[in-house]
Amino acid sequence: MGGLEARASPVVRQALCWRPTQQRAAGRRMASDDKVKVFNDSNFEQAVLRAELPVLVDFTASWCGPCRALAPIIDQLAGELEGKVAVGRLDVDDSPATAGKYGVRGVPTIMVFKNGERVEQHVGLTTKARLLELIEL
Questions:
Q1: Which of 47, 61, 64, 110 is catalytic?
Q2: Domains of the chain
Q3: 60-110: pLDDT as tens digits
Q4: What value does the CA radius of gyration of the chain take, rounded to a whole number of Å?
Q5: pLDDT tens, residue by residue, 110-123
Q6: Beta bridge partners of 123
Q7: Given 67, 71, 104, 135, which residue is catalytic?
Q8: What's the pTM value of the predicted model, to 2 decimals?
Q9: Which H, E and C letters describe 85-105, residue by residue?
């Protein structure tokens, strides 16, 4: 790494070095661990709207720099909140119907669903603390 990459924080370095081919399979962005669920147009109603647990959904895109910077935070929350909150991603390019239904116009967009209803939303890069506030455990 040279130049900007050498001076960047670890999160920024990870975002700068991220390669879509390493994170995508079968046309979907894959989570770095099995705790982050993959939501799409086909499973959103069952996996999110009918979920017993609260669900944090990261509406994301593979080409989005801020989304890549947020990814490690989402991964960390998925592990820490396992059994209390379901955490997952929905790629807006792969699932345009669901993104459109919820008015997603910018990514990353984070939404929290409880009992089938959207209860919180944040647009743009954010912190782990802010995400925990959205969830309100």
A1: 64
A2: 4-135 (3.40.30.10)
A3: 999 999 999 999 999 999 999 999 999 999 999 999 999 999 999 999 999
A4: 15
A5: 999 999 999 999 99
A6: 109
A7: 67
A8: 0.77
A9: CEEEEEECCCCHHHHHHCCCC
